[in-house]
Specification:
Blueprint lengths: L2 H10 L3 E6 L8 E6 L2 E7 L4 H16 L20 E5 L3 E2 L6 H13 L15 H4 L1 E2 L2 E2 L5 H14 L6 E3 L8 E4 L4 E3 L6 E3 L9 H15 L4 H12 L5
Antiparallel strand pairs: 1-2, 2-3, 3-4, 5-9, 6-7, 8-11, 9-10
Helix pairs in contact: 5-6, 6-7
Amino acid sequence: MSAMLLESMRSCWPGLGVDGPLSGSARNDILSGHLDGVRVVIRRSSRTPDSRSWEWHLLRHLHERGIHVPVLVPSSAGDLDVDGWHVYEYVEGSHPEPKDPRVADALAEVHAVTERWPQRPGSASSIDLPELLVGGDVDLTALPTGLADEIVDAWRRARTSSPTCVVHGDAHARNAIIDEHGRYVLIDWDEARVDQPHYDLPVGPAELRANLAWEIATCWIPEHDYARSLVQSFTGAAPL
């Protein structure tokens, strides 16, 4: 973070200091810091203002419903973010084991309290993308035609009559923390959108394949080498 940017942040969050970078985010700047002696996380989202507002509204709703998520610290003017920069209370704790069932329980609670939630501005679900072609981090027109067709087919085969809801979009043990009170806190909602619940909680081979298809599609542009590395597992062919 540049000295000029740090001073700008301090003018919005007086007393804010930066301790250093944090790992775990491939797409956004994320830093460890302190505010009035309390440890915080400083993060920058590259999403649009409407998309960020959707995320903050979602976090507030989940918090009010008793689901443990990061708590945003408003600026001195009462803003939740300033040009995408925002401050969270730091969650002390440890990551759960990868197969810890309580993570799935927490995700199921999220799905239950967000049925038929409005779509994140600029994003699109696996249901809508075959028609829209572009939404969120997915641009089906940027994929090789044959691969795009296989991805859409995988999404269609996994589709069910379940109502749509908010899905975390990047649900794994590294995005959950067991805090000092033993509560499971779900973090990093940057990839959240409205879709079918199996994109967080797959239960069969068709859903697992659809989720792999989503991972390839959503990473194709921002994390291209990683997306290409998944193609062989998905198609059985050599990476493109």
